[in-house]
User: Fold Glycohydrolase from Rhodococcus rhodnii LMG 5362.
Amino acid sequence: MTDSNPDRLADSALLARYGNALIGLAAGDAWGYQVEFRSYANMPAYPVPAPAGEWIVSDDTQMTLALHDALTDVDDLTDIDAVTRAITSRFLEWQTDPDNDRAPGTTCMASLSALRSGARWYDANGARESAGCGAVMRLVPTAFAPEPYWLGLTALQAVITHRHPRAIVPALLLADAVRHAPDRGGRLLDEARAESDRIRAGSSRWLSDSYLTAVLAPYRSDVPSLLIDGLDDDVDALLGAAVTSRARLRGLDPSQFGDPCTGVGEGWESASATALGLLVADLATGTTAPLDGPAALAWASTSNGDSDSIACIAGALIGSAHTTPHYWESAGLTPRFEPRYAAALATAADRVLGSAHAEE
Assistant:
């Protein structure tokens, strides 16, 4: 008998999307991690093949799982101090984990060392004033958090280690894209630019989001000016560059795509990482997409920049766009992750924050 209960159907789709996003993120991470510090000219193949044998993830997947665990640790999301403590605690656990030897970001490590010493993220000696891509590569769990919390939680996970408008704004735009991916196939970049326009016009609901305002209050009380500062710090420009690149690439055969970073940036910081992730996902979603999911991860990994972060962001977006379970398997991709992370991903995928299943 087919289940026609709309709440259960919606919950099932949410769980499927979360699982697809997590697997896509981890698969892209492992695929790109193979060549993270290689230049495009020195790639082993074009595109880089999928990992042979065990798929080794990096700090991108590790911190995503830490963030997931932190959010499930909290009973009351309205208690921002409690949420902050939970995220900080899980990130500090990750900092000293024996597996944290996979090129962790220097900003994340330095910020967490300051917090371990007793500083608060918003103190002058707290989180680093950096816009590194660590603020965006791990945000999938907050993108799936319920209303009215997801926007503020996304900002919070960013500022705990990256206290900078150029980190916060790309994180919000990317979380919005992940959250609404099924309805935005092939036009994720366009929707991000539309939200930017609404922020500048003063019509974005983000400007009056009370939870976001409360999260950012210790740092900047004027949310509209903070968001515009972020947009002005090359975020808008890089989104525009990615749109230009997308138009050029749509006229080519995928074998001619070349380095995804061309004309946009290398993804080492949040703005270009987000723009590149949206670009790759736009070319792998929608009715006329030239790439399927696995091909998109291969292309994203074959980059002159932060290959694992670009591919993990793209994988999260592509996975989130699919509302039926096991998208990646149906697309022919069955990564064999290390047992620890395979188990953690499977457990996390069954507990998306805000679903009824997570509250059982």
